[in-house]
Specification:
single chain, alpha+beta, 2 domains, 3-stranded antiparallel beta sheet, 38% helix
Length: 196
Amino acid sequence: MTIDIATSSVVSQACRIMEIGPVASFADGSPQALALAEQYPEARDLVLQSHDWSAARVVAALAPVTVAGLAADPDLAYSYQLPADCLKLWKVHGTGAFRVDGRVIRSETAETLTIRYARQIEREADLGPDLRLAVAQQLAHLLAPVFVGSRTKRDSIEAGLERVLSVARVNDAHSASAHQLDGDAPDTSWVSEALR
């Protein structure tokens, strides 16, 4: 992915969080620019796969495929290729056993599999403000050991990451009805919920 550092609000915010000066271009060759270019996709993907975000949620139907070079599994005879933009598989709907092997889902059933997954988002504008701030905070957290000298400031950046992700999760929770999506029966016992 190519991003323009001069227009990236995520990169600018990450620099402000670390209290370092912004860089004008990834191409300027500075250690900061190189590190930001290298870690930006990592920070984005870490945030996108940390929660079932509404902005990244996709439901897809997969047909069985034959994957070249993939040895057959006698217990799970059918293979399904994960979509190219899939960062994290959240759910496989339906019945039957399955297992994820790399980018392939193996299943004991030959029917179409419906899955829910987190997709990779390339455009910053598609992230929304909560996720942009979370990616900036994650980027600052990844780069703080290199560019932030104070241990206290690094600890503050780490704590800030947890706060930002928590607020983003709360805000994102309003994008769906308040029922369980994991397929389990609702449990009214706080003990069993705490032990999950």
